[in-house]
Design goal:
Elements lengths: L3 H4 L3 H5 L5 H10 L5 H22 L18 H10 L5 H19 L9 H7 L7 H7 L23 E3 L11 E3 L4 H26 L1
Antiparallel strand pairs: 1-2
Helix pairs in contact: 4-5, 4-6, 4-9, 5-6, 6-9, 7-9
Protein name: Mannitol repressor
Organism: Chelatococcus sambhunathii
InterPro entries: MtlR-like, MtlR-like_sf
């Protein structure tokens, strides 16, 4: 998955590296093999980056400074709210992404070695709206059957996880894999994955029109 050119990147380049959609799918599927804390923090970072890409693709004048350090859109919270104001995400997506932000904060800053069995964590995960592709398909217009998203190859099969591809929900060719278990970790993972994929599709659509 990782090549020599990526390994040679500077620390700043590694931090700001923007994977393409195929790389992102592979990265998301890798997360289920990580400890719970790492899974939440990294998935939330991917979602933060996907939000930034979708917002930036909508700008007439591109500027990375607005996302850097103390820029107006430097925080995950500010990106969620501007994306909602711009109409890039639905009400359900906004609520879910904000829940993922709160989970990220708890796992990143809390002193306890938390996992998805903690009552408060489990309750938040079970409050998520878009934890399956069928609901996502009915609630959003992000899926375009004519978009180049359909060029993505079949997803990598996960070992030791019972998965269901989005093809099973009628989204042929999307090429992402969702965890089939109806537990807290699966709901978190699927919701993050669906939102990231939705944002990527919107980003590609806007870049294609620019």
């Amino acid at each position: 998955m990782y090549n020599d050119s990526q390994r040679a990147l500077s620390l700043r380049e590694l931090t700001s590296y923007k994977p393409d959609i195929i790389e992102m799918c592979a990265m998301m599927e890798d997360l289920v093999n990580l400890p719970h804390r790492s899974h939440v923090i990294v998935a939330a970072t991917f979602l933060d980056n996907a939000l930034q890409a979708a917002i930036s693709a909508s700008f007439t004048n591109k500027s990375d400074a607005i996302f850097d350090n103390r820029g107006n859109l430097s925080s995950f919270f500010s990106k969620i709210n501007i994306a909602w104001a711009m109409g890039l995400i639905s009400k359900d997506e906004k609520e879910d992404i904000d829940t993922i932000r709160l989970l990220r904060n708890a796992f990143a800053h809390g002193p306890l070695n938390m996992d998805f069995d903690y009552v408060a964590i489990k309750e938040r995960c079970f409050s998520l709206n878009l934890h399956n592709a069928e609901k996502w398909k009915s609630d959003t217009e992000a899926f375009d059957p004519n978009s180049n998203i359909r060029e993505i190859p079949d997803s990598i099969k996960l070992i030791d996880f019972d998965i269901v591809t989005v093809d099973d929900y009628g989204l042929t060719g999307m090429g992402i894999s969702l965890l089939k278990e109806d537990d807290a970790r699966a709901r978190f993972h699927n919701t993050a994955y669906i939102n990231i994929f939705s944002l990527f599709s919107k980003t590609i659509g806007r870049e294609g029109r620019s």
